[in-house]
Amino acid sequence: MNDLFMDISDLVVFVAVVEEGGITPAATRLNRVPSNVTARIKKLEQLLSRDLFIREKNRLRVSGAGELLLGHAKDLIKMREKVLEDMQLDVPAGLLKLGAIEMAAATHLVEPMVHFNNQYPDVELKLETAATGLLVDRVLRGELDLALASDPVEDPGLEVMPIFQETMTLVSEAQHKPIKTAADLGESPSIIAFSPYCSYRKRLDSWLESGSRLARAVEIPSYHALLGCVAAGMGVGMVPQAIVDIFPFQSSVKTHPLPARWAHSRTCLISIFQS
Fold first, then answer.
1. Is there a contact between 131 and 195 (Cβ–Cβ < 8 Å)?
2. Domain containing 210 — which CATH number?
3. Rg of the chain over CA atoms, in angstroms?
4. CA–CA distance, 195 with 133 (Å, rounded to integer)
5. How far from the centroid of its chain's Cα atoms is residue 33's Cα?
6. What is the chain's mean pLDDT, rounded?
7. Spatial distance between the Cα atoms of 10 and 23, rounded to a whole number of angstroms
8. For 234-268, what is each residue's pLDDT tens digit?
9. Total Cβ atoms within 10 A of residue 92
10. Would 1 be classed as within a structural domain?
């Protein structure tokens, strides 16, 4: 077999000759001169080192090799058309890997995700929840396309866009005395919190340090578990007010306002910095 490049346009000519039953009608269909069609067929035959037609006087009959090529040629032509069609579509498609802190997934993301899925049905949206520190690491490693993180650390590799502002509040059991400073928790307070990767946990630790308090931490995996432990009197926690607002047993916990330094948190959309 000759080492020549197979031009898909030659296959288009070949299929036309087969379907039209001759060179002249194929040339008419393709808006070409018959000599050009003949040259294309000869080029294919030289490439494949096979006669694609049996020539009988003034008519052509497809050979065995031609029958074999015909199926492949039609498949390749359809594939080319499909590629061109897909590339011309201005509709988003594919996999979008989104990360979010649990608070954002439980409150702010519900309605936007429903809207997104309705507007872009060809996009497969994959959502994963994690603490802010882990989300930042996963975005930087390219494991997530986007993430909603709380007060993400500054990093030259990240694009950061503020999306929501949260009001943070301290929560305790319903009968707890008012808490105005960390000193109101006593000498050895207990806190209910997420892992140290969580920005809210770091905020709570900072508030405790302002009152020179070193707390015993009970780490939990979800806000409902956190508020349940708080309601049971196991310790205090720091959560967005929006989480308390959707907690089904609000009467079992008490909220305590925080100073401005700790009360305001930004949820940001982060992605890889595009230079």
1. yes
2. 3.40.190.10
3. 34
4. 10
5. 51
6. 88
7. 13
8. 999 999 998 899 888 989 999 999 998 899 999 99
9. 12
10. no
